[in-house]
Design goal:
- The chain has a single domain, classed as Rossmann fold, CATH 3.40.50.150.
- The termini are far apart.
- Helix 5 links the parallel strand 2 and strand 3.
- It is built from nine helices and seven strands, in the order H-H-H-E-H-E-H-E-E-H-E-H-H-H-E-E.
- It is of the alpha/beta class and about 240 residues long.
Amino acid sequence: MKVRELFDQCAAMYDEDRRKLVPFFDEFYGSAIQAIPFSYTKNIRVLDLGAGTGLFAAMIAQAYPTALLHLSDISEAMLEQAQERFVDNPRVTYSTQEHLQLSATAEYDLIVSALSIHHLEHSDKQALFPKIFNALSSGGVFINADQALAPNPPSEDAYEKQWVEDVMANGISQESLEAAQQRMREDKNALLMDQLRWLSNSGFCNVDCWYRRFRFVVYGGTKNESNQSIHSDGNSAALHSRR
């Protein structure tokens, strides 16, 4: 509930500050777009988990103009901003829901998330990844542009210091910086190696990290025909490879 309230409060200003709060914004989001393996002419069905104001979804819509996009988020205020962004676009739909309410129906070619899943407890992350796997069609792909915990406390301190230096250099206001730091107190970042392992344990193959700069990472995996069967506890019922 607290995370929802924090994002409800910042919805109107979220996009204005995003480019300043995400160092190397274009590299980060650009890497996520480049990781999408489908042809630009394919009518892909896309789910954006924790879509917020639709910032990431808009980038996908620009790259894939015929894509069908479904945006979900726990914050109604954030989705209201997204609806303004996509006004009169019949290819975009919305739902207010928790990540773990994701249906197990295999209906999406691509599931993405940006700076959202790190708000979940680690046990919930591990419960979510099999749900994402099951919600993908055969050959479907999951891409997560998110944050990761440093491998040790000194490095985590260095990540934080570098982030503050970067956002200050980007011209963030003191008020926006303090608001972001308040939201970040609710972060539950996990090690990148753990997140990759959780994906593999959920049945994904070709699990990879395509971008990393300090705490900012882009990673994901593929659901192939040979690894479609998966148990609800996250244990793959078929062998899967890892690139």
